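Quick one, tokens below. Sequence please?
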């Protein structure tokens, strides 16, 4: 009969190989399931297409921020200049790598929907994922709380983009939240 160290020296590599193969199989199945779930969420959401801003139903972020400052400022007057609603037009394309969002200025960004934090060319990081039928993007600078944008369809088939802007420099004050509403459009 063999002693325990010699049995371990024989079985050790076999068990390691078996564990590695099991881990590889689980990884392949998990990746396939995540990819399938992401595609299903993207198809269910139907965010793809061209969108035109509905200013009547949309918030002005500068106005929201000004209101927040007035509500949370210690004292004194706050200067403001409003009039900057969201991008007038959006084009959203569901691509193999994730989701490509193009604004009316022609600026475009690809967001990968795998929940991985990635470096942005403009600085900071971005993370995107599907949460049921909602596309969620989170961006943050170094040491900052993330700004969250959620893209979803409402019951009327309009695209609603809700942005949550954290205000960490003011203690436990609530975040600034604003929304943009888009109607389906053509030729954007």
């Amino acid at each position: 009969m063999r002693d325990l160290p010699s049995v371990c020296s024989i079985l050790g590599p076999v068990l390691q190989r078996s564990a590695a193969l099991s881990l590889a199989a689980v990884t392949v199945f998990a990746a396939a399931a995540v990819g399938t779930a992401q595609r299903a969420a993207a198809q269910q959401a139907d965010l793809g297409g061209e969108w035109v801003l509905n200013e009547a139903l949309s918030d002005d972020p500068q106005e929201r921020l000004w209101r927040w400052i007035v509500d949370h400022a210690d004292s004194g007057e706050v200067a403001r200049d409003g009039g900057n609603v969201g991008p007038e037009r959006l084009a959203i394309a569901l691509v193999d790598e994730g989701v490509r969002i193009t604004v009316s200025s022609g600026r475009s960004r690809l967001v990968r929907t795998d929940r991985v934090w990635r470096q942005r060319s403009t600085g900071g990081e971005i993370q995107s994922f599907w949460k049921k039928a909602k596309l969620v993007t989170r961006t943050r600078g170094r040491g900052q709380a993330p700004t969250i944008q959620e893209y979803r369809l409402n019951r009327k088939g309009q695209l609603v983009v809700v942005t949550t802007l954290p205000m960490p420099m003011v203690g436990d004050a609530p975040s600034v939240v604003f929304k943009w509403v888009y109607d389906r459009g053509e030729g954007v």
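Strands lie at 49-53, 89-95, 98-103, 108-111, 118-119, 125-131, 134-140, 147-153, 159-165, 176-185. The chain is about 30% helix and 35% strand.
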